[in-house]
Prior knowledge:
The chain is α/β, with parallel strands linked by helices. The chain has a single domain, classed as Rossmann fold, CATH 3.40.50. Helices cover about 35% and strands about 20% of the residues. The protein contains seven helices and nine strands. The protein has helices at about 15-25, 55-60, 80-85, 100-105, 120-130, 135-145, 165-175, and strands at about 5-10, 30, 35, 50, 65-70, 75-80, 90-95, 110-115, 155-160. The strands form two sheets. The chain has a five-stranded parallel β-sheet, sandwiched between helices. A hairpin with a 2-residue loop joins strand 5 and strand 6 (about 75-80). It is globular, with a radius of gyration of 16 Å. The two termini are about 15 Å apart. Adenosine-5'-diphosphate (ADP) binds near residues 16, 130 and 160. 1-O-pyrophosphono-5-O-phosphono-alpha-D-ribofuranose binds near residues 12, 16, 17, 96 and 144.
Amino acid sequence: MSGRFFAVVGPSGVGKDTLMEAAAARVPGLHLVxxxxxxxxxxxxxxxxxxxxxxxxxxxxxGAFALHWQAHGLRYGVPAGVDAVLAEGRxxxxxxxxxxxxxxxxxxxxxxxxxxxxxxxxxxxxxxxxGRESAADIVRxxxxxxxxxxxxxxxCEIDNSGDLDAAMAQLLAALQPVRA
Length: 180
Ligand SMILES: Nc1ncnc2c1ncn2[C@@H]1O[C@H](COP(=O)(O)OP(=O)(O)O)[C@@H](O)[C@H]1O
Ligand SMILES: O=P(O)(O)OC[C@H]1O[C@H](OP(=O)(O)OP(=O)(O)O)[C@H](O)[C@@H]1O
């Protein structure tokens, strides 16, 4: 049986990458997607492949992505190799844009959305502490915080306003197979 694709979404600074890494350390076999991004490889944060616009465009043309989108002035791609990981029966976690969810649901059958949320003042503080973006970029990311989720999806809400362990418990529960 093929593994399940879990789309991790939510506003910038909410803790998506932190939770995904903690989950991978706890759940044997769980695969974290290494995204391709047109961001300098030195930017830090998640483990990703940093490429130029031209390289990204060439990858799109050769069908190297299962899914790709644009956000924050950057381009993001999910390598097509993720389909082989799912075919091995492994669960997959991937950080996606909320805007790309309808397309993702078409590609990944049985996809579950893990919607991570936190109070606005918590987001602002976390982004400032993370220090990866400029103040102007942080303002733009906070403006996007309330972006609504498209309807018709299988969504689990996970509140990460408080300590990480509380959100991890919710995340681990959401990864459990659905019982018939
Ligand atoms: N529950 C939490 N409590 C305190 N700090 C957190 C918590 N979750 C995440 N963080 C911190 O908030 C910042 C943003 O987290 P990150 O995982 O990069 O968010 P995202 O990937 O959603 O943008 C990071 O510095 C991270 O260490
Ligand atoms: O359409 P949205 O749901 O607002 O998402 C926009 C982008 O933000 C996140 O990227 P990234 O991981 O670079 O940013 P973040 O860590 O600050 O969330 C997410 O993976 C999308 O690529």
